[in-house]
Amino acid sequence: MLAQLALQQGTVYDIGRFTSARFGGVAERVGFVSELEGRVSSSIVDRLADQGSGPVLGAEGYVFELERRGYIKAGPFVPEVVLDYPDAVRELHREFLRAGADVMVALTYYAHREKLRDVGREGDLEAMNRQAVRLAREVASEGDALVAGNVCNTWAYDPDDPATGQTVRAMYTEQLGWAVEEGVDFVISETNDYLGEALIAVEVIRDLGLPAMVTLAPTQPDQTRDGYGYAEACRILAAEGAQIVGLNCDRGPLTMLPLVADIREAVDCAVAVQPVPYRTDAAAPTMETLRSADGDRAFPIALDSFTCTRFEMAQFAAQARELGVDYVGICCGAGPHHVRAMAEALGREVPASKYSPSMDLHPMFRADVAAKDAAFLHSWSA
Ligand SMILES: [Zn+2]
């Protein structure tokens, strides 16, 4: 894998230089990148290539968690919190960092022109994108984390209407232009429903001279919405220059891992998997299809009863590593307790491990439980 990554890294540099000469509009930004090239283009690649340190651990789901905490409106799910309550974003970054996340992902998910227009904040677009990267960088520097810029599906793309491709490209170009100026180590393009839209992201990221991690949203049984099998789509993304490919969101561990095994077989580059921590199964393979006992749709704000325990997510992390996954993470629904359990399942001790469970010190579960407490325990077990 090392040689493969090194080769792709070289490709990124070449394309970056080519782009700066060819496109005046982005030349300035690409020039900025090349000054930092040694740092920004090598770190995620180096970490992935360092087999001794195990998989890179990712942590996402910022939008769901900050919605739960009362800082984001469910429905539009636009991350206005970045400007309105930056401390809330810092805090969640810090919780994931302490739990062992190797990457702080800038909260620019849905912070694109189309979505901000929906909530009447188009004027805040640039400030929101820049601030999100600054917050991620600030907390990343408290540990040893990388900073990822972030773009996602736009809802503007239509494979049958080529003009929409230009709209998407313009959105990605402006968002990532600001991210590059604020300083990101690589870019995650995620929850892609269409291979066509993901390829636009690869092109824009590549032109900025940054490593690209591109993951598809596996909402359908076995293929993207424009008709490519997930493994085939990943193979094409890798061939077009994505350094890391895979799946994120929508599926829980049980229904995500079989698809990932196929992707691992199909590509030589690094593979990423970031499931939601919900108990999806054959009957309801995605969180969108989960139903409560009375038949109501649980997605997106009544999923609590389907939430995986930390132990289930720890098991997932170990299984993903077994499959040869290079970037193991978690998406919507994630809590820091999940991330810490995943880190520890991967053999790490992280800052939050200081407070990892010690049930041997629990008054009821300790070996030398007092006689009066043992009586309580009897009632708990009845
Ligand atoms: Zn998600």
Strand portion: 5-15%
Q: Helicity, in percent?
A: 40-55%
Average pLDDT figure:
89
Number of helices: 16
Identify the overall geometry: globular
Please supply descriptive tags for the structure shown above.
382 residues, alpha/beta, eight-stranded parallel sheet, 48% helix, binds zinc ion
Overview of this protein structure:
The structure is a single chain. This protein is of the alpha/beta class and 382 residues long. 48% of the residues lie in helices and 9% in strands. It is built from 16 helices and 8 strands. It has helices at residues 2-22, 24-35, 37-40, 43-49, 62-68, 81-84, 86-98, 113-118, 125-140, 162-182, 195-207, 230-239, 253-266, 310-323, 336-345, 371-381; strands at residues 56-57, 103-105, 146-152, 186-192, 212-216, 244-248, 270-274, 327-328. Strands 1-8-7-6-5-4-3-2 form an 8-stranded parallel sheet. β3, α10 and β4 form a beta-alpha-beta unit. α7 (86-98) runs parallel beside α9. The chain is globular, with a radius of gyration of 21 Å. 50% of the residues are buried. Residues 1-42 have low confidence and may be disordered. The chain binds zinc ion (ZN). Residues 61, 249, 276, 331-332 line the site of zinc ion.
